[in-house]
Design brief:
about 425 residues; alpha/beta; five-stranded mixed sheet; three-stranded parallel sheet; 16 helices; rod-shaped
Length: about 425
């Protein structure tokens, strides 16, 4: 006796009779309609079905091949109940709030998948089945995939085509799967995700393997990724703009100053203290509203910010140079000590301005960032007054010079706050991207 269990559509195509308690009868049109009705009824209940059929073969035949797969007697269905976890609906709703569009790509039939969508409160926009996908070229699939959120009865290769079509439309695609048929799309996706109970080939193809079977883990991972990108962006924007501004200031100063605005050892100390102050940036707070929209790395934003704020920083540096050298006639050591303090203060304190698109006084930084930054600024102000100051070429400053440095620092931070609002109004939300 040859037994087979495969997809119901395939088993019916290969069957010629119906196995009943009263004995076999022909699988004619009325019988096929009866089986199709049972198939649709069970599928509408969310049950996954395998068709089972049998055929007697020659007793002497010990080598079964594809040529023996015909004229089966259809025996019935094996039905599997696979209800979603109770937490799934809430997790999917949370993903939607974070700008993540969920599309279901499955080998199951449409009735089963629609029942699942109904249970999870997922509105079905449009449905594509494998036979339709097979008739579409890549351009057609890109257009259809943009509209559909349900892909049923698809092969592994068609799953990969759907992933590539979404990527071609400018989306970053994460694919979650745990079966052998999921390995190809897991490879194609920008982020392949599987679970620890998946088959080995799926886990090997995945970029991430979830140890906790809960979609809320994906939401948490997305939020953490966006928080990391936002905080990295803060450092990059601050570092590139300040370094570009300092480079311009040093170059411009060489045209009229008879000495260096800052000695090499002073620059090294400046860089060391500056980097020390920014170590806590990864701990910085990010508002929930900033985590709701997808984000991407934007090199154009970095370039524009560097040019805008670097020029602003350089303008205040040159103003300080002119006042210190041409108005106050300070000697080289006093000039270098004053610019060291101003450079440190403006570079470090501007993080409180540029770390958010909102007004600086309305968006509190993390305690670690605030304490470290202010502590390093205090150290920078104190350095010229310490016994070791002479080793770096610093001298103690009198009150008029300190007052000038303080006024210029406050003026720069005020100008940076206004410049920030104009910059972000002109560009729109930074780093946002399609879901």
């Amino acid at each position: 006796m040859l037994f087979v269990q495969i997809a119901p559509e395939d088993i019916l195509r290969l069957s010629s009779s119906l196995d009943t308690p009263a004995g076999p009868r022909p699988l004619d049109a009325p019988a096929r309609a009866e089986v199709a009705g049972l198939f649709e009824t069970l599928g509408a209940q969310g049950l996954r079905l395998l068709g089972v059929a049998t055929r007697r073969i020659d007793d002497a035949n010990t080598d079964v091949s594809a040529s023996d797969e015909h004229d089966f007697a259809f025996a019935g269905f094996v039905a599997f109940a696979d209800p979603p976890k109770q937490s799934t609906a809430a997790a999917l709703a949370s993903l939607a709030e974070h700008g993540v569009a969920v599309k279901i790509v499955t080998g199951d039939n449409e009735a089963v998948t629609r029942h699942l969508c109904e249970a999870l409160q997922i509105p079905v926009d449009s449905v594509l089945v494998g036979t339709q996908i097979a008739l579409l070229d890549d351009a057609g699939l890109r257009a259809a995939a943009a509209r559909a959120n349900l892909f049923c009865r698809v092969t592994p290769e068609q799953k990969s085509r759907v992933v590539r079509a979404l990527q071609a439309n400018g989306h970053v695609v994460g694919y979650l799967g745990d079966g052998i048929n999921d390995a190809p799309p897991l490879h194609c996706a920008d982020v392949g995700i599987s679970v620890d109970s998946a088959v080995d080939v799926a886990k090997q193809a995945a970029d991430l393997v979830l140890l906790r079977h809960d979609l809320a883990v994906l939401r948490d991972g997305i939020r953490e990724g966006r928080r990391t990108l936002i905080n990295v962006n803060k450092y990059v924007l601050m570092a590139t703009s300040s370094n570009f501004g300092n480079m311009l200031s040093m170059a411009a100063a060489s045209l009229f100053l008879p000495f260096l605005p800052m000695r090499p050892v002073q620059i090294l100390l400046n860089n060391f203290l500056y980097d020390l102050s920014e170590l806590p940036i990864p701990t910085d707070r990010v508002d929930d509203v900033d985590l709701l929209a997808p984000r991407r790395w934007d090199s154009g934003l970095v370039r524009s910010f560097m040019l805008s704020f670097g020029l602003l920083s350089s303008a205040f540096d040159l103003l300080a140079f002119a006042l210190l050298y041409f108005v106050m006639h300070t000697p080289a050591a006093v000039f270098q000590s004053a610019w060291f303090i101003q450079s440190m203060a403006t570079q470090i304190l501007v993080i409180f301005v540029i770390r958010s698109t909102r007004p600086a006084w309305r968006d509190r930084p993390s305690a670690a960032l605030a304490v470290t930054s202010l502590a390093v600024v205090c150290i920078a102000v104190a350095v010229p007054f310490l016994p070791a100051a002479a080793a770096f070429g610093f001298v103690a400053l009198d009150w008029p010079v300190l007052a000038l440095v303080t006024a210029l620092t406050l003026a720069y931070l005020t100008a940076a706050e206004f410049a920030k609002h104009r910059f972000h109004r002109a560009r729109g939300p930074a780093g946002t991207a399609p879901p």
